[in-house]
Amino acid sequence: MIQDNIYARTQPSNLNQTNWDSVFLFLNDDVLIEMANEPRGKSIDQKRYSLVQAVLTFPKTASLGISQRDLNKAHICAKKIKFNVSTGVIRLKRKNIPSAYIIGYHP
Predict the structure, then answer these.
(1) Distance (Å, rounded) from C-alpha 71 to C-alpha 69?
(2) Over the chain (107 residues), what is each successive 10-residue block's mean pLDDT?
(3) In the prediction, which pLDDT does 3 show?
(4) Confidence (pLDDT) at 76
(5) pLDDT at 94 (0 to 100)
(6) Which of 4, 24, 26, 78 is the most buried (most CB within 10 A)?
(7) pLDDT at 2
(8) Residue 57: is it exposed, middle or buried by C-beta count within 10 angstroms (0-12/13-18/19+)?
(9) Could you give the CA distance from residue 78 to residue 58 in angstroms, rounded to a whole number?
(10) What's the N-to-C CA distance of the chain in angstroms?
(11) Do residues 105 and 15 touch, judged by C-beta distance below 8 A?
(12) What is the DSSP string of 19-58?
């Protein structure tokens, strides 16, 4: 995925193959991983939170293109962040932005 076009929707070349770009973006975002491990006093913007929500829509079983360990790590961290946002440990900055993360594997 081209870095300049990081928030653009992508279409998998094979429609039966899952596009894991959103999961890889999540795993490469050090701020989100740190936030999952140490949530106290942190805040998350709507763009990053939409990435968390997108990761949670992906299937729990890995397929071609990602390892099961990476997928499990992404799901666990995303669940922690979502839970901490819902309980108020992590503050969600409310600003509507046109986010275009891939939801699951159907863009």
Answers:
(1) 5
(2) 44 60 89 90 87 89 86 93 91 67 53
(3) 44
(4) 94
(5) 73
(6) 26
(7) 43
(8) middle
(9) 11
(10) 15
(11) no
(12) --HHHHHHHT-HHHHHHHH--TT-EEEHHHHHHHHHHHTS
> Which residue is listed with tokens 């094979």?
14
Confidence (pLDDT) at 46: 85
- For residue 6, what are its two tokens? 């990081």
- DSSP 3-state assignment of 91? strand
- Cα-based distances in Å from 28 to 12, 52, 64, 98: 20, 13, 19, 21
pLDDT at residue number 77: 94
Output the six-digit token pair for 51: 């990435």
The encoded tokens of residue 43 equal 């805040």
Distances (CA, A) of 68 to 20, 71, 87: 12, 5, 28
